[in-house]
Protein backbone atom coordinates (compact mmCIF):
# COMPACT_ATOMS: atom_id res chain seq x y z
CA UNK A 1 0.00 0.00 0.00
CA UNK A 2 1.44 3.33 -1.07
CA UNK A 3 1.05 6.26 1.33
CA UNK A 4 1.24 9.90 0.41
CA UNK A 5 -0.28 13.33 0.85
CA UNK A 6 -2.05 15.80 -1.36
CA UNK A 7 0.45 18.66 -1.50
CA UNK A 8 -0.98 22.01 -0.39
CA UNK A 9 1.91 24.51 -0.41
CA UNK A 10 2.44 26.14 2.98
CA UNK A 11 3.24 29.57 1.49
CA UNK A 12 0.68 30.89 -0.95
CA UNK A 13 -1.43 27.71 -1.18
CA UNK A 14 -1.98 26.84 -4.88
CA UNK A 15 -1.44 30.48 -5.80
CA UNK A 16 2.27 29.71 -5.35
CA UNK A 17 2.45 28.95 -9.08
CA UNK A 18 2.18 32.69 -9.79
CA UNK A 19 4.89 33.59 -7.24
CA UNK A 20 6.98 30.43 -7.33
CA UNK A 21 9.67 29.87 -4.69
CA UNK A 22 11.57 26.59 -5.01
CA UNK A 23 13.14 27.01 -1.57
CA UNK A 24 9.71 27.02 0.05
CA UNK A 25 8.70 23.90 -1.87
CA UNK A 26 11.90 22.19 -0.73
CA UNK A 27 11.10 23.03 2.90
CA UNK A 28 7.58 21.66 2.43
CA UNK A 29 8.89 18.39 1.01
CA UNK A 30 11.40 18.05 3.85
CA UNK A 31 8.50 18.26 6.30
CA UNK A 32 6.43 15.80 4.26
CA UNK A 33 9.31 13.35 4.47
CA UNK A 34 8.80 13.36 8.24
CA UNK A 35 5.33 11.88 7.71
CA UNK A 36 6.79 8.74 6.15
CA UNK A 37 5.12 9.52 2.82
CA UNK A 38 6.39 7.94 -0.39
CA UNK A 39 4.54 10.27 -2.78
CA UNK A 40 2.80 13.59 -3.23
CA UNK A 41 -0.08 14.60 -5.47
CA UNK A 42 0.48 18.03 -7.02
CA UNK A 43 -1.99 20.45 -8.59
CA UNK A 44 -1.08 22.77 -11.47
CA UNK A 45 -3.70 25.52 -11.65
CA UNK A 46 -5.36 25.26 -15.04
CA UNK A 47 -5.71 29.01 -15.85
CA UNK A 48 -2.06 29.59 -14.90
CA UNK A 49 -0.77 26.74 -17.03
CA UNK A 50 -3.11 27.22 -20.02
CA UNK A 51 -4.05 30.92 -20.12
CA UNK A 52 -5.18 30.67 -23.75
CA UNK A 53 -6.64 27.66 -25.58
CA UNK A 54 -3.58 27.50 -27.86
CA UNK A 55 -0.95 28.34 -25.21
CA UNK A 56 0.70 26.42 -22.37
CA UNK A 57 2.91 28.58 -20.16
CA UNK A 58 6.59 27.66 -20.46
CA UNK A 59 7.33 29.37 -17.14
CA UNK A 60 4.65 27.36 -15.37
CA UNK A 61 5.99 24.13 -16.88
CA UNK A 62 9.49 25.01 -15.62
CA UNK A 63 8.08 25.53 -12.12
CA UNK A 64 6.33 22.16 -12.27
CA UNK A 65 9.55 20.53 -13.47
CA UNK A 66 11.33 21.97 -10.44
CA UNK A 67 8.63 20.74 -8.04
CA UNK A 68 8.99 17.20 -9.40
CA UNK A 69 12.78 17.41 -9.23
CA UNK A 70 12.67 18.59 -5.61
CA UNK A 71 10.35 15.74 -4.72
CA UNK A 72 12.65 13.23 -6.38
CA UNK A 73 15.69 14.56 -4.50
CA UNK A 74 13.84 13.67 -1.29
CA UNK A 75 12.73 10.22 -2.37
CA UNK A 76 9.16 11.25 -3.15
CA UNK A 77 7.27 10.06 -6.19
CA UNK A 78 4.76 12.40 -7.81
CA UNK A 79 1.22 12.13 -9.14
CA UNK A 80 0.06 15.12 -11.18
CA UNK A 81 -3.46 16.44 -11.70
CA UNK A 82 -4.34 18.27 -14.89
CA UNK A 83 -7.52 20.33 -14.55
CA UNK A 84 -7.82 22.51 -11.46
CA UNK A 85 -10.59 23.02 -11.85
CA UNK A 86 -12.02 22.98 -8.38
CA UNK A 87 -10.05 23.10 -5.12
CA UNK A 88 -11.35 23.71 -1.58
CA UNK A 89 -14.51 25.56 -2.70
CA UNK A 90 -12.71 27.73 -5.30
CA UNK A 91 -13.08 27.20 -9.04
CA UNK A 92 -10.14 27.76 -11.39
CA UNK A 93 -11.37 27.76 -14.96
CA UNK A 94 -9.35 29.52 -17.66
CA UNK A 95 -10.78 32.74 -19.04
CA UNK A 96 -11.49 31.08 -22.39
CA UNK A 97 -14.23 28.99 -20.71
CA UNK A 98 -16.09 31.77 -18.89
CA UNK A 99 -17.99 35.00 -19.38
CA UNK A 100 -17.86 36.24 -22.99
CA UNK A 101 -16.04 33.07 -24.04
CA UNK A 102 -18.39 30.75 -22.14
CA UNK A 103 -18.24 27.19 -23.50
CA UNK A 104 -19.42 23.93 -22.03
CA UNK A 105 -16.15 22.19 -21.10
CA UNK A 106 -17.65 18.71 -21.56
CA UNK A 107 -19.60 19.26 -24.79
CA UNK A 108 -18.12 22.08 -26.89
CA UNK A 109 -15.68 20.62 -29.43
CA UNK A 110 -13.33 23.62 -29.36
CA UNK A 111 -13.12 23.43 -25.57
CA UNK A 112 -12.60 19.66 -25.64
CA UNK A 113 -9.84 19.91 -28.22
CA UNK A 114 -8.04 22.68 -26.34
CA UNK A 115 -8.28 20.78 -23.06
CA UNK A 116 -6.98 17.57 -24.66
CA UNK A 117 -4.00 19.45 -26.16
CA UNK A 118 -3.18 20.88 -22.76
CA UNK A 119 -3.35 17.51 -21.00
CA UNK A 120 -1.16 15.88 -23.63
CA UNK A 121 1.42 18.68 -23.35
CA UNK A 122 1.43 18.56 -19.56
CA UNK A 123 1.61 14.76 -19.50
CA UNK A 124 4.55 14.72 -21.88
CA UNK A 125 6.42 17.24 -19.70
CA UNK A 126 5.92 15.41 -16.39
CA UNK A 127 6.64 11.98 -17.92
CA UNK A 128 10.24 13.10 -18.46
CA UNK A 129 10.80 12.68 -14.71
CA UNK A 130 11.45 9.13 -13.46
CA UNK A 131 9.66 9.77 -10.15
CA UNK A 132 6.32 10.67 -11.79
CA UNK A 133 3.98 7.69 -11.68
CA UNK A 134 0.42 8.89 -12.33
CA UNK A 135 -1.58 11.60 -14.06
CA UNK A 136 -5.18 12.38 -13.08
CA UNK A 137 -7.44 14.22 -15.52
CA UNK A 138 -8.41 16.69 -12.81
CA UNK A 139 -9.63 17.16 -9.29
CA UNK A 140 -13.31 16.26 -8.96
CA UNK A 141 -14.29 17.86 -12.25
CA UNK A 142 -17.65 16.08 -11.92
CA UNK A 143 -18.68 18.88 -9.55
CA UNK A 144 -18.98 21.16 -12.61
CA UNK A 145 -21.81 18.98 -13.97
CA UNK A 146 -23.75 18.92 -10.72
CA UNK A 147 -27.06 20.67 -10.18
CA UNK A 148 -25.66 22.21 -6.98
CA UNK A 149 -23.01 24.15 -8.90
CA UNK A 150 -23.83 27.86 -9.37
CA UNK A 151 -22.65 27.83 -13.00
CA UNK A 152 -22.87 24.24 -14.20
CA UNK A 153 -21.60 22.66 -17.40
CA UNK A 154 -24.36 20.09 -17.96
CA UNK A 155 -23.75 16.89 -19.87
CA UNK A 156 -25.27 13.45 -20.31
CA UNK A 157 -23.56 10.28 -19.13
CA UNK A 158 -22.88 9.39 -22.75
CA UNK A 159 -21.19 12.73 -23.34
CA UNK A 160 -19.10 12.19 -20.21
CA UNK A 161 -17.97 8.80 -21.53
CA UNK A 162 -16.81 10.48 -24.74
CA UNK A 163 -15.13 13.32 -22.84
CA UNK A 164 -13.25 10.93 -20.55
CA UNK A 165 -12.11 8.86 -23.51
CA UNK A 166 -10.67 12.01 -25.10
CA UNK A 167 -8.96 13.22 -21.91
CA UNK A 168 -7.51 9.83 -20.94
CA UNK A 169 -6.41 9.31 -24.54
CA UNK A 170 -4.58 12.65 -24.47
CA UNK A 171 -2.76 11.69 -21.27
CA UNK A 172 -1.75 8.32 -22.72
CA UNK A 173 -0.54 9.97 -25.92
CA UNK A 174 1.68 12.31 -23.94
CA UNK A 175 2.79 9.84 -21.26
CA UNK A 176 2.20 6.23 -22.26
CA UNK A 177 4.19 4.98 -19.26
CA UNK A 178 2.12 6.71 -16.58
CA UNK A 179 -1.08 5.60 -14.90
CA UNK A 180 -3.90 7.61 -16.54
CA UNK A 181 -6.76 8.29 -14.13
CA UNK A 182 -9.79 10.42 -13.41
CA UNK A 183 -11.25 11.38 -10.03
CA UNK A 184 -14.81 12.13 -8.88
CA UNK A 185 -16.29 13.28 -5.62
CA UNK A 186 -18.95 11.05 -4.11
CA UNK A 187 -21.95 12.39 -6.04
CA UNK A 188 -20.98 9.73 -8.60
CA UNK A 189 -21.75 7.15 -5.92
CA UNK A 190 -24.84 8.70 -4.32
CA UNK A 191 -26.60 11.22 -6.61
CA UNK A 192 -28.87 9.90 -9.35
CA UNK A 193 -28.65 13.21 -11.25
CA UNK A 194 -24.85 13.07 -11.54
CA UNK A 195 -23.77 12.17 -15.12
CA UNK A 196 -20.39 10.88 -13.93
CA UNK A 197 -21.42 7.40 -12.77
CA UNK A 198 -19.91 4.51 -10.85
CA UNK A 199 -19.39 2.80 -14.20
CA UNK A 200 -17.15 5.72 -15.16
CA UNK A 201 -15.31 5.50 -11.82
CA UNK A 202 -14.76 1.75 -12.07
CA UNK A 203 -14.17 1.20 -15.77
CA UNK A 204 -12.37 4.20 -17.26
CA UNK A 205 -8.78 5.00 -16.46
CA UNK A 206 -6.15 2.60 -15.15
CA UNK A 207 -7.30 2.59 -11.49
CA UNK A 208 -10.55 3.31 -9.69
CA UNK A 209 -10.17 6.48 -7.63
CA UNK A 210 -12.01 7.19 -4.37
CA UNK A 211 -12.40 10.57 -2.65
CA UNK A 212 -14.03 10.00 0.73
CA UNK A 213 -15.32 12.81 2.92
CA UNK A 214 -17.55 12.19 5.94
CA UNK A 215 -18.98 15.73 5.89
CA UNK A 216 -21.25 14.42 3.11
CA UNK A 217 -23.94 13.58 5.69
CA UNK A 218 -22.29 10.48 7.14
CA UNK A 219 -20.84 12.02 10.29
CA UNK A 220 -23.83 14.34 10.67
CA UNK A 221 -26.27 11.43 10.53
CA UNK A 222 -24.40 8.77 12.49
CA UNK A 223 -22.05 10.81 14.67
CA UNK A 224 -18.30 11.45 14.65
CA UNK A 225 -17.45 8.27 16.56
CA UNK A 226 -19.82 5.90 14.75
CA UNK A 227 -18.69 2.75 12.98
CA UNK A 228 -20.31 4.08 9.79
CA UNK A 229 -18.19 7.23 9.89
CA UNK A 230 -14.93 5.32 10.17
CA UNK A 231 -16.07 2.72 7.61
CA UNK A 232 -17.18 5.21 4.96
CA UNK A 233 -13.95 5.21 2.91
CA UNK A 234 -13.84 1.40 2.86
CA UNK A 235 -17.49 1.28 1.80
CA UNK A 236 -16.76 3.55 -1.17
CA UNK A 237 -13.85 1.30 -2.13
CA UNK A 238 -16.09 -1.78 -2.06
CA UNK A 239 -18.77 -0.08 -4.16
CA UNK A 240 -16.18 0.93 -6.74
CA UNK A 241 -14.86 -2.65 -6.83
CA UNK A 242 -18.38 -4.02 -7.40
CA UNK A 243 -18.71 -2.01 -10.61
CA UNK A 244 -15.30 -3.02 -12.00
CA UNK A 245 -15.18 -5.39 -14.94
CA UNK A 246 -11.46 -6.04 -14.49
CA UNK A 247 -11.12 -8.22 -11.36
CA UNK A 248 -7.45 -7.25 -10.96
CA UNK A 249 -7.98 -3.49 -11.17
CA UNK A 250 -6.45 -1.50 -8.32
CA UNK A 251 -8.27 1.11 -6.26
CA UNK A 252 -6.67 4.31 -4.99
CA UNK A 253 -8.06 6.11 -1.93
CA UNK A 254 -6.76 9.38 -3.35
CA UNK A 255 -8.41 11.76 -0.90
CA UNK A 256 -9.55 11.37 2.66
CA UNK A 257 -9.17 13.62 5.64
CA UNK A 258 -10.41 14.51 9.12
CA UNK A 259 -12.66 17.56 8.69
CA UNK A 260 -13.21 19.51 11.90
CA UNK A 261 -16.64 20.73 10.88
CA UNK A 262 -17.99 17.24 11.73
CA UNK A 263 -15.16 15.68 13.79
CA UNK A 264 -14.31 17.28 17.15
CA UNK A 265 -10.68 17.10 18.19
CA UNK A 266 -11.35 14.21 20.57
CA UNK A 267 -12.74 12.08 17.73
CA UNK A 268 -9.89 12.60 15.28
CA UNK A 269 -7.33 10.02 16.56
CA UNK A 270 -9.78 7.11 16.54
CA UNK A 271 -11.22 8.25 13.21
CA UNK A 272 -7.73 8.12 11.71
CA UNK A 273 -6.96 4.72 13.20
CA UNK A 274 -10.28 3.16 12.21
CA UNK A 275 -10.33 4.59 8.70
CA UNK A 276 -6.74 3.62 7.86
CA UNK A 277 -7.07 0.13 9.37
CA UNK A 278 -10.23 -0.68 7.42
CA UNK A 279 -8.87 0.75 4.17
CA UNK A 280 -5.62 -1.16 4.48
CA UNK A 281 -7.53 -4.43 4.73
CA UNK A 282 -9.27 -3.80 1.39
CA UNK A 283 -8.09 -6.18 -1.34
CA UNK A 284 -6.30 -4.53 -4.27
CA UNK A 285 -5.86 -1.19 -2.49
CA UNK A 286 -3.24 0.65 -4.52
CA UNK A 287 -2.60 3.40 -2.05
CA UNK A 288 -3.85 5.97 0.42
CA UNK A 289 -3.24 9.71 -0.05
CA UNK A 290 -4.28 12.01 2.81
CA UNK A 291 -5.81 15.44 2.35
CA UNK A 292 -3.72 17.33 2.93
CA UNK A 293 -0.07 18.10 3.62
CA UNK A 294 -0.26 21.64 5.09
CA UNK A 295 -2.92 23.79 6.70
CA UNK A 296 -4.13 26.75 4.67
CA UNK A 297 -2.56 29.91 6.06
CA UNK A 298 -4.83 32.22 8.04
CA UNK A 299 -3.38 35.01 5.92
CA UNK A 300 -5.60 33.79 3.08
CA UNK A 301 -9.24 34.76 3.37
CA UNK A 302 -12.67 33.42 2.46
CA UNK A 303 -11.98 29.70 2.82
CA UNK A 304 -14.52 27.47 4.57
CA UNK A 305 -13.31 27.25 8.16
CA UNK A 306 -12.54 23.54 7.96
CA UNK A 307 -9.88 24.17 5.27
CA UNK A 308 -7.62 25.97 7.73
CA UNK A 309 -7.09 22.83 9.81
CA UNK A 310 -7.09 19.87 7.39
CA UNK A 311 -3.32 19.60 7.09
CA UNK A 312 -1.03 17.08 8.74
CA UNK A 313 1.53 19.91 8.98
CA UNK A 314 0.66 23.36 10.32
CA UNK A 315 1.15 26.65 8.50
CA UNK A 316 4.52 27.08 10.24
CA UNK A 317 5.87 23.78 8.91
CA UNK A 318 5.49 21.69 12.10
CA UNK A 319 4.03 18.19 11.99
CA UNK A 320 0.75 18.17 13.93
CA UNK A 321 -0.45 15.42 16.29
CA UNK A 322 -2.76 14.11 13.57
CA UNK A 323 0.24 13.93 11.24
CA UNK A 324 1.99 11.69 13.74
CA UNK A 325 -1.19 9.65 14.14
CA UNK A 326 -1.61 9.11 10.39
CA UNK A 327 2.05 8.11 10.05
CA UNK A 328 1.73 5.60 12.91
CA UNK A 329 -1.59 4.24 11.60
CA UNK A 330 -0.06 3.63 8.17
CA UNK A 331 3.01 2.00 9.70
CA UNK A 332 0.80 -0.32 11.76
CA UNK A 333 -1.37 -1.17 8.74
CA UNK A 334 1.67 -2.05 6.65
CA UNK A 335 2.92 -4.43 9.37
CA UNK A 336 -0.43 -6.16 9.82
CA UNK A 337 -1.16 -9.43 8.05
CA UNK A 338 -3.06 -8.83 4.80
CA UNK A 339 -6.75 -9.60 4.87
CA UNK A 340 -7.87 -12.95 3.51
CA UNK A 341 -10.45 -12.09 0.87
CA UNK A 342 -11.66 -15.67 0.56
CA UNK A 343 -14.78 -16.53 2.47
CA UNK A 344 -15.86 -12.93 2.92
CA UNK A 345 -19.62 -12.47 3.14
CA UNK A 346 -21.32 -11.31 -0.04
CA UNK A 347 -24.17 -8.86 -0.42
CA UNK A 348 -26.07 -8.53 -3.70
CA UNK A 349 -26.73 -5.20 -5.39
CA UNK A 350 -29.16 -4.62 -8.23
CA UNK A 351 -29.21 -0.81 -8.61
CA UNK A 352 -32.37 -0.79 -10.71
CA UNK A 353 -34.33 -2.94 -8.28
CA UNK A 354 -32.81 -1.68 -5.04
CA UNK A 355 -33.47 2.02 -5.45
CA UNK A 356 -30.59 3.37 -7.54
CA UNK A 357 -27.85 5.56 -6.16
CA UNK A 358 -30.08 6.96 -3.41
CA UNK A 359 -30.06 3.49 -1.84
CA UNK A 360 -26.25 3.58 -1.76
CA UNK A 361 -26.09 6.93 0.02
CA UNK A 362 -25.60 7.30 3.81
CA UNK A 363 -28.73 5.95 5.48
CA UNK A 364 -30.08 4.39 2.27
CA UNK A 365 -31.41 0.85 2.06
CA UNK A 366 -28.30 -0.72 0.58
CA UNK A 367 -25.99 1.32 2.81
CA UNK A 368 -27.87 0.01 5.85
CA UNK A 369 -27.62 -3.63 4.72
CA UNK A 370 -23.92 -3.25 4.02
CA UNK A 371 -23.08 -1.54 7.30
CA UNK A 372 -25.11 -4.05 9.32
CA UNK A 373 -23.00 -6.83 7.79
CA UNK A 374 -19.69 -4.98 8.14
CA UNK A 375 -20.35 -4.18 11.78
CA UNK A 376 -20.63 -7.90 12.51
CA UNK A 377 -16.95 -8.33 11.81
CA UNK A 378 -16.04 -8.29 8.09
CA UNK A 379 -16.68 -5.94 5.24
CA UNK A 380 -18.73 -7.86 2.67
CA UNK A 381 -17.98 -8.13 -0.99
CA UNK A 382 -20.64 -6.54 -3.15
CA UNK A 383 -21.94 -8.63 -6.03
CA UNK A 384 -23.42 -6.46 -8.75
CA UNK A 385 -26.27 -7.85 -10.79
CA UNK A 386 -25.38 -8.45 -14.45
CA UNK A 387 -21.67 -7.80 -13.90
CA UNK A 388 -19.88 -10.63 -15.73
CA UNK A 389 -17.03 -10.51 -13.22
CA UNK A 390 -19.41 -11.84 -10.58
CA UNK A 391 -21.33 -14.28 -12.75
CA UNK A 392 -19.53 -17.34 -11.37
CA UNK A 393 -18.82 -16.05 -7.87
CA UNK A 394 -18.74 -19.14 -5.67
CA UNK A 395 -18.68 -17.36 -2.30
CA UNK A 396 -21.83 -18.04 -0.24
CA UNK A 397 -24.31 -15.22 -0.52
CA UNK A 398 -26.01 -13.60 2.43
CA UNK A 399 -29.75 -14.08 2.39
CA UNK A 400 -31.81 -11.03 1.63
CA UNK A 401 -30.97 -7.93 -0.37
CA UNK A 402 -31.00 -4.21 0.02
CA UNK A 403 -34.64 -4.21 -0.95
CA UNK A 404 -35.37 -6.28 2.15
CA UNK A 405 -33.52 -3.93 4.50
Automatic annotation (TrEMBL):
Gene3D superfamilies: Glycosidases (3.20.20.80). SUPFAM superfamilies: (Trans)glycosidases. InterPro entries: GH. Keywords: Hydrolase. GO terms for molecular function: hydrolase activity. This is Glycosyl hydrolase. It comes from Glycomyces mayteni.
Amino acid sequence: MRFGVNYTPRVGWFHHWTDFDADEVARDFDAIGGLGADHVRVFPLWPVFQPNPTTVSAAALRALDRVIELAGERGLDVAVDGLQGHLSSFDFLPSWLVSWHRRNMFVDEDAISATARYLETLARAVAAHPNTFAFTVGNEVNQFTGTVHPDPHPATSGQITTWLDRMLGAIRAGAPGLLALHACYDASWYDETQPFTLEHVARQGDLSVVHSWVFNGTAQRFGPDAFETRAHARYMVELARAFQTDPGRGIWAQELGAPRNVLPDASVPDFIDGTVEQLAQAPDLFGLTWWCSHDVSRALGDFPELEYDLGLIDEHGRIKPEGVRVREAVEAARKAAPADASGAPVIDLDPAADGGRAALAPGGAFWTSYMDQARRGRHPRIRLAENPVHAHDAVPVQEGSAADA
